[in-house]
User: Fold these one by one.
Assistant:
Number 1:
Amino acid sequence: MTKLQQAILEILKNSKDHFTAEDVFWALKPQFPKLALGTVYRNLNYFSDQKMIRRVYRADAPDFYEWNTKPHDHAVCIKCGVTSDLFVPDLKDFLKSQILCDIVSFDLNISYICPECSGKNFETEEE
Amino acid sequence: MTKLQQAILEILKNSKDHFTAEDVFWALKPQFPKLALGTVYRNLNYFSDQKMIRRVYRADAPDFYEWNTKPHDHAVCIKCGVTSDLFVPDLKDFLKSQILCDIVSFDLNISYICPECSGKNFETEEE
DNA sequence: TTCACTGCAAAAAGTTTGCACTGAG
DNA sequence: CTCAGTGCAAACTTTTTGCAGTGAA
């Protein structure tokens, strides 16, 4: 494991944020001035292939990568734009009960108004 | 509404399939030999802006367009690759009850083994 | 010396856009 | 004559890849 690879993993490990390849690239650029974006992609994809991190495919925005590899969903606040991890308990069982099929996996993305932006004090189940 | 625009809508209207812009392009090419892919995109996007059809953004595959504008989800069979419309009853209420937040919208995509491929006779709630 | 890792640049894939043209009204 | 709709080609965004160089063991 090279210094660069360690540094890439450290960035993800030390934050609950969701990083695009470019985020990681710019975060490391001061420390690795010759760093290339392609190299960042290559390493991030290698790590996610190894299940060390999770890659989240997105449709109309760059994919992001996160440290949290446990199953969870994502919620994007339509006010502040922040993406949060979100775990919906019993969702798989609920889906199975409703559609009566063998579910292999599923991907849920929620648009919502986060507690901070709603001004109210809702609690979210987070993981 | 031009002949081309009518023809594009007809293709979506007459099928429950999910069409990429290229699907539509090739379906119309015989009838409109000079047709350009960009024009197909422009019209499909115009129609979806007008809520006449629905555009479904996809992460690692071309977006598709469908006639069904009613809220529903999608399930992709991992065996045969077919995408089906799927309506999960009461899902929004279930999500609200679990995460206690104001949900604006959500997007659910399921990977599963469809009834035909599983060899069993499961019934799916479809819309 | 070796070879995994890297930088660089080009390519790939999907989609959008600028511009000139054309044809129906 | 006008101008909405079109074809064409180039641009754009995100991501991947081929290739040559390089640096640690």
Note: Residues 70-120 of chain B form a domain with the Dna Ligase; domain 1 fold (CATH 3.30.1490.190).
Number 2:
Amino acid sequence: MHFSKTAEYAIRVLSYLHRHHETSHSVNVLHQELDLPYKYLTKLMTELAKKGLVNASRGREGGLSLARSADTIYLCDILEAIGESLEHERCILGFDKCDALNPCALHDQWVKPKEMIETMLTTTTLASLIQNKETKL
Amino acid sequence: MHFSKTAEYAIRVLSYLHRHHETSHSVNVLHQELDLPYKYLTKLMTELAKKGLVNASRGREGGLSLARSADTIYLCDILEAIGESLEHERCILGFDKCDALNPCALHDQWVKPKEMIETMLTTTTLASLIQNKETKL
DNA sequence: TATTATTACTACCTTTAGATAGTATATTAT
DNA sequence: ATAATATACTATCTAAAGGTAGTAATAATA
Ligand code: SF4
Ligand code: SF4
């Protein structure tokens, strides 16, 4: 019951870019500041650029910055961008097409936590994460 | 954001054993009834036997059955038995020692869903899953 | 234009979860 | 005893996630 490392990395990096949005940042800086594996991060950032979440510019003075306003970027958008959208996630007992009329044995117990997670992911924006600048990233 | 297949399998198998607790069942039967990979299941059941969740007896008329009363087996016990206890799970941003005083950027948003999941896992017993025998397994 | 700092691309390596194969061992009905 | 039916054990394979390495392309600046 956990998020993937890739999801953690993406959320942390994008939060960092928002917190320091006055300028752009190279992968190398993000790597050092957030202690994430450098090469893995380049791949991830390339992907996030393709998906339109960040702007990437090469060459001297290049680097990465948010492509959209942070209050329009929801956590589910980030998961979507790395291929872990809510729909692609299998549920607790792994059945595909199930609903309240054809539930698995765990459905009643799982439905509430599941809704809370989905609500959190669909209503939390990057901007709302950064209100307290003291929190870890 | 999902459970492991192993966790799914364990929950489903144990639920089946409880639902049909009048007798014991061979791995082969469980494999056929629940459509789980046979050899993988033998390993899993051996593990669950070692951890004291099921009784395994070899030979003709042997098979598997619950070792404890179903109302003493909580979902977290099952996860524990397969090495996925709550403590071993990294949290949403993957920090180790964090608390309300030294939180990550997502802590405030994550703390409620997290509690709901933990509550569900620590209060739901196998027995409580089976009240409606019509649900899928 | 040459240099330097950056992202982009391609290929490969490592670890882990999941799954498979074959054999040994135990139990019991006959 | 023997045959049949189970679990237990050991070794291996596969696929996916995570991570590394080297090089090409791009852009600013000196
Ligand atoms: S908990 Fe509900 S949604 Fe999830 S697999 Fe079971 S029936 Fe389907
Ligand atoms: S959400 Fe809370 S418990 Fe989880 S990593 Fe962040 S600070 Fe730690």
Note: Residues 107-123 of chain B form the longest helix (17 residues).
